[in-house]
């Protein structure tokens, strides 16, 4: 049996189903990544404690015109308060602030306020409400920049923010408040305290750096991750050297005669001497003015010289050593030509670096400057191991529009206020396999109310209808549940699990509830069993988990939860916010600190422990709300994040700053945009893998194209600009003639033009229409594509100066198929051979009108496959056009339906879950 080219189809194509939460979330798996620079600790800021790290400087710093502030931050709540990150001057008179703006949506705002006016200000359109992740924020200010919009740059997760609802650029050479002698605060601004965690905090005085000094993109996952901090320019700075006559020969640096240059320790500077005027004038360095001509010697530490001055490729380069003295550049042959090369400490005079590595001195400056900050209302227990390189779960409201308790103590304490407010508060990490252990402590027993704990299934969160059926396992007297749980009260107790339509009561365990009880919850997702342990550590009981999907720990109070609440311990809160003595128990790997003994084989829930994914990094994300009429959206990593297209309509490209944020391995990161993340709704996204966002230029055709190609998967994303000429060819980069081409104009309203491999060159069909195949079309140049090019023609595909995107596929045996079939009008319908078990089937009638029909095996896990979405419409999911998904194709199972009308012709696009020959050893079986 021949090993297939792609034995596992989900490496290159995969559907994902998820529930919208109206905030922001990671769709797919939280997968481990390879650490580049480890961040061991963070500091937890609990707003209710009024925490602060602060220092008052008696003197000004290196510069008030240039600075960088970088930090990693994880929020534990998204209430209406301002969450401050960095402040100079408090909040009276003149002051500077950087933080998450008040109001609940939490855009980032920064400003320099003089008491009467904003001298600089940015307020992002994008909001930041995801409590499941660490954000990396970099603010770089350089008011000496001649371009106004470049004087203040804000980066989040390595990408520059450019969309602002408010923007005031600083005047040229403005002295900001940052760098002045004043009070400096991290995590607060008088009363505006952070709720959450901060890690690896850097204030760099005198430099405006980019995010590449602090992080990088992990190409295997698409995530922005920490790296070893390099607080200086990470790329070589080129300085053009010429020799000018100014009362004798003088060096001019970037056109400035005998200019003073600043060299940052650790950075590399290349003094380019290729200009012919440098002939006979080698540039060298010394610790003495005019070097050997002034009685000094040549300084050679970190210095290399290449070529002969005045000739091509000649330069002198220096990588500045830490602690390097003030230097001078000079000509080794002639006196009086040079000037000063000041060396600068990486952090400048007032800069600092907070790594939170000493729990008794959380404000310890590790930059070498000794600028320690004073910790106020921060305890040794506020040092945490939850960090950007070891993300841990916290609790957050699943749907912020519902009433719920107040989340505090780093997202590990929940307190209720009022009655009937016990809405969903699950944890933020959701594994779909493995054995996991966590603990929860009751603050009180609620005066007799019911306490529930257990797990939700993340994919099922949308089933909640507003009644009590959201409690783990379901409420006994009202509705279905979404997982499995334990009900504990002063009366009857229950172990409960739920199916999609019923609840299963496993037993009525004996347990006497008391305030301050610490429960252990052990979830065995591999064997679908959840077990509960009481305050003395003994087993209360176990029950089955009856639904597939990713599990989320949860606990809540029912009916009258006034004064009730919870303290969680996922291994990093061993005292339950100071209410218990740490137990000192670890998991099977020696991780964590738990109150009870951890059952054998169970682990602390953290990102580093979660399973890897064999799915690639998404390059195209096509999403649809399953529950309501809402336009589907399509993003791709060639055009970039935030840029949405709408397959069901002819709209131009639209920017959604809260749409797709990152293209990740096995999924994507999304904001709160309603098209992709409406609270309580179920969504599906279909994901194709190209080349991780890396593009190249293709000149095979008449029109130069930009392509992102995956020849293994037979997929290419192509961008081009039309030239208005007839029958123009475009290179696709596949090396094989394509079988499916979709072209969409970006800047104007126009249809989605589709060419299928069974069509003649003069035929096309429209993705956003129910219309039949169009004959006599010239949209594709009346030309059959070749192994290198396809053609475009006319305003639909080649209007002059108009931008387009094309998605192009060729067939890969065992992975993709683009064919046609004829309906027979019978429930024993037409069988379509694909050579693999499909994960996705898209069908369209071509000889007459008829909607497009889209099926996948993630939404329908059993035959018949009935859940249908129609790409040309914005309709909600419906049960129709029944088919069976088989080991080697699909079969129609409904007579005279729109997808199986007798004598009608249909085209289809199908991608594999598994090839028919399996992995080359064992063939795949039917579902």
Distance between the termini: 21 Å
Question: Please, how many helices?
Answer: 2
- List segments where confidence is low: pLDDT < 50 over at least 5 consecutive residues: 475-479
The CATH topology of the largest domain turns out to be Jelly Rolls
CATH architecture of the largest domain: Sandwich
Structural class: mainly beta
Helix content: under 10%
For the largest beta-sheet, the strand count, sense and barrel status come to: 8 strands, antiparallel
CATH class of the largest domain: Mainly Beta
Q: How much strand?
A: 35-45%
Can you walk through the features of this model?
With 927 residues, this protein is an all-beta fold. It has 6 domains: 9-29 and 614-688, no CATH class; 42-226, Sandwich (Jelly Rolls), CATH 2.60.120; 237-344, Immunoglobulin-like, CATH 2.60.40; 406-571, Jelly Rolls, CATH 2.60.120.920; 696-809, Jelly Rolls (Sandwich), CATH 2.60.120; 816-915, no CATH class. Helices cover 1% and strands 39% of the residues. It is built from 2 helices and 68 strands. Strands 3, 5, 10, 11, 12, 15, 28 and 30 form an 8-stranded antiparallel beta sheet that branches. Strands 13-9-8-7-6-14-4-29 form an 8-stranded antiparallel beta sheet, with no helix packed on it. Strands 31, 32, 33, 38, 39, 40, 42 and 43 form an 8-stranded mixed beta sheet that branches. The radius of gyration is 31 Å and the shape is flat. The relative contact order is 0.11. The model is unreliable at 475-479 (pLDDT under 50).
Offer a few descriptive terms.
6 domains, 68 strands, Immunoglobulin-like, 8-stranded antiparallel sheet, 1% helix, 927 residues, mainly beta, Jelly Rolls
């Amino acid at each position: 049996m021949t090993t297939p080219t792609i034995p596992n189809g989900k490496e290159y194509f995969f559907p994902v189903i998820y529930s919208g939460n109206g905030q922001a979330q990671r769709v797919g798996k939280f997968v481990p990544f390879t650490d580049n620079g480890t961040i061991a600790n963070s500091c937890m800021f609990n707003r209710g404690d009024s925490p602060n790290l602060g220092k008052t400087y008696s003197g000004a710093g290196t510069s008030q015109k240039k600075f960088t502030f970088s930090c990693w931050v994880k929020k534990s709540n998204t209430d209406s308060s301002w969450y401050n990150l960095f402040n100079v001057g408090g909040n009276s008179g003149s002051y500077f602030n950087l933080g998450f703006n008040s109001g609940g949506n939490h855009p980032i705002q920064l400003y320099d306020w003089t008491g009467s006016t904003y001298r600089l200000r940015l307020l992002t359109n994008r909001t930041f409400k995801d409590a499941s992740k660490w954000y990396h924020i970099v603010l770089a200010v350089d008011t000496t920049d001649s371009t106004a919009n470049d004087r203040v740059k804000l980066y989040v997760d390595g990408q520059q923010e450019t969309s602002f609802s408010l923007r005031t650029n600083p005047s040229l050479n403005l002295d900001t408040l940052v760098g002045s002698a004043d009070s400096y605060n991290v995590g607060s601004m008088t009363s505006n305290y952070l709720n959450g965690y901060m890690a690896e905090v850097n204030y760099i005085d005198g430099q405006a750096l980019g995010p590449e000094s602090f992080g990088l993109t992990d190409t295997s996952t698409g995530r922005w991750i920490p790296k070893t901090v390099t607080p200086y320019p990470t790329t070589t700075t080129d300085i053009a050297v010429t020799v000018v006559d100014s009362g004798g020969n003088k060096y001019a640096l970037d056109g400035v005669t005998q200019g003073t240059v600043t060299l940052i320790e650790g950075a590399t500077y290349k003094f380019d001497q290729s200009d012919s005027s440098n002939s006979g004038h080698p540039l060298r360095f010394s610790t003495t003015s005019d070097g050997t001509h002034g009685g000094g010697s040549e300084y050679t530490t970190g210095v290399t010289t290449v070529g002969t001055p005045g000739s091509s490729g000649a330069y002198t380069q220096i990588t500045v050593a830490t602690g390097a003295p003030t230097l001078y550049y000079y000509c080794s042959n002639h006196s009086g030509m040079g000037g000063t090369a000041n060396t600068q400490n990486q952090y400048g005079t007032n800069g600092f670096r907070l790594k939170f590595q000493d729990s008794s001195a959380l404000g310890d400056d590790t930059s070498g400057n000794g600028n320690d900050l004073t910790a106020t209302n921060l305890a040794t227990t506020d040092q945490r191991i939850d960090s950007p390189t070891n993300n841990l779960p916290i609790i957050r409201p699943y749907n912020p529009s519902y009433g719920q308790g107040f989340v505090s103590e780093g997202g590990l304490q929940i307190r209720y206020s009022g009655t009937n407010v016990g809405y969903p508060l699950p944890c933020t990490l959701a594994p779909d396999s493995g054995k996991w252990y966590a603990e929860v402590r009751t603050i009180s027993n609620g005066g007799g109310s019911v306490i529930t704990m257990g797990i939700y299934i993340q994919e099922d969160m949308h089933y909640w209808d507003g009644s009590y059926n959201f409690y783990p396992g379901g409420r006994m007297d009202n509705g279905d549940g979404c997982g499995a749980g334990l009900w504990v009260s002063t009366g009857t107790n229950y172990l409960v699990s739920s199916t999609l339509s019923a609840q299963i009561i496993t037993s009525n365990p004996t347990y006497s509830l008391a305030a301050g009880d610490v429960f252990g919850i052990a979830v065995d997702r591999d064997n679908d069993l959840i077990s509960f342990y009481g305050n003395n550590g003994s087993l209360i009981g176990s029950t089955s988990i009856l639904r597939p999907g990713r599990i989320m720990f949860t606990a809540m109070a029912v009916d009258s939860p006034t004064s009730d609440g919870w303290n969680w311990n996922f291994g990093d809160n061993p005292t339950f916010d100071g209410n218990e003595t740490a137990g000192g128990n670890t998991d099977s790997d020696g991780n964590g600190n738990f109150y009870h003994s951890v059952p054998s084989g169970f682990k602390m829930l953290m990102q580093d422990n979660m399973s890897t994914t064999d799915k690639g990094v998404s390059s195209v994300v096509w999403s649809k709300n399953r529950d309501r009429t809402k336009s589907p959206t399509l993003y791709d990593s060639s055009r970039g994040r935030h840029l949405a297209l709408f397959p069901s309509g002819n709209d131009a490209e639209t920017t959604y700053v809260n749409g797709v944020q990152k293209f990740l391995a096995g999924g994507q990161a999304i904001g709160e945009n309603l098209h992709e993340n409406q609270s309580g709704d179920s969504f599906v996204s279909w994901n194709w893998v190209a080349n991780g966002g890396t593009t190249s230029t293709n000149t095979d055709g008449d029109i130069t194209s930009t392509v992102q190609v995956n020849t293994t998967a037979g997929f290419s994303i192509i961008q081009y600009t039309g030239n208005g000429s007839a029958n123009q060819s475009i290179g696709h980069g596949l090396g094989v003639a394509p079988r499916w081409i979709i072209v969409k104009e970006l800047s104007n309203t126009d249809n989605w033009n589709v060419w299928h491999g069974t069509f003649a060159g003069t035929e096309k069909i429209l993705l956003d229409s129910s219309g039949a195949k169009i004959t006599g079309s010239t949209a594709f140049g009346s030309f059959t594509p070749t192994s290198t090019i396809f053609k475009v023609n006319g305003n639909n595909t080649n209007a002059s100066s108009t931008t387009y995107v094309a998605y192009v596929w060729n067939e890969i045996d065992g992975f993709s198929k683009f064919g046609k079939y004829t309906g027979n009008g019978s429930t024993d319908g037409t069988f379509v051979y694909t050579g693999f078990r499909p994960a996705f089937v898209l069908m369209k009638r071509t000889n007459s009108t008829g909607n497009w029909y889209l099926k996948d095996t993630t939404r329908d896990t059993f035959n018949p496959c009935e859940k249908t979405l129609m790409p040309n419409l914005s309709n909600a999911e419906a049960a129709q056009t029944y088919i069976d998904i088989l080991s080697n194709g699909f079969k129609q199972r409904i007579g005279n339906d729109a997808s199986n009308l007798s004598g009608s012709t249909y085209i289809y696009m199908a991608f594999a879950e598994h090839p028919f020959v399996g992995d080359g050893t064992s063939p795949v079986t039917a579902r």
